[in-house]
Amino acid sequence: QVQLQESGPGLVKPSETLSVTCTVSGDSISDSFWSWIRQPPGKGLEWIGYIYYSGSTNYNPSLKSRVTISVDTSKNQVSLKLSSVTAADTAVYYCARDPESIDAFDIWGQGTLVTVSS
Amino acid sequence: DIQMTQSPSSLSASVGDRVTITCRASQTITNYLNWYQQKPGKAPKLLIYAASSLQSGVPSRFSGSGSGTDFTLTISSLEPEDFATYYCQQSYSTLRTFGQGTKVESK
Fold first, then answer.
1. Least CA distance to B100: which residue of chain A?
2. Nearest CA to A34 among A116, A111, A112, A94?
3. Contact B95 A60 (CB under 8 A)
């Protein structure tokens, strides 16, 4: 059974860098694309970007200047870094599997809430 | 960006009702359209992919249709566990985008 588990700091100060990690179990990270998606409290879903195990990435242009997504195949982990955060970056951050076979987010982590506040 | 517009934004229904949610894309996305269900405090769950393919384990009362720019999610007979928010999402573009969501509430 494939499971995704996000871990993050919970609280980040404005202007600092948010870092969240997704650990994948029950599946090889080499078999799919892996996306990050966020959801501000009470609002809708925003796709942040994806990475392939090879390291190839694609980012939402609205966040591209601040986002880095990376992969560690030895640990079966995908990581998200978002720099220069503001209160507008407060959200639940989800990782999701995005297999080429269906072009949809078929497995999601439970999400981690990151609050940006001083 | 491809804009995804859902209607209605919310609806009230009763158990047993037939529920239809529509999603319109700002340009053609052929059949690259997915539907998700989200309950409060939970991650979204994939229901339908490629406009009409039912994800494994999803009840058959859920169905999807459409192509091009106009799509529909139908719940044939609403069950108590179906009260939730539903999102459409396009995967035609490398910039993935979601609809704003449709909240299905109890009448």
1. A44
2. A94
3. yes
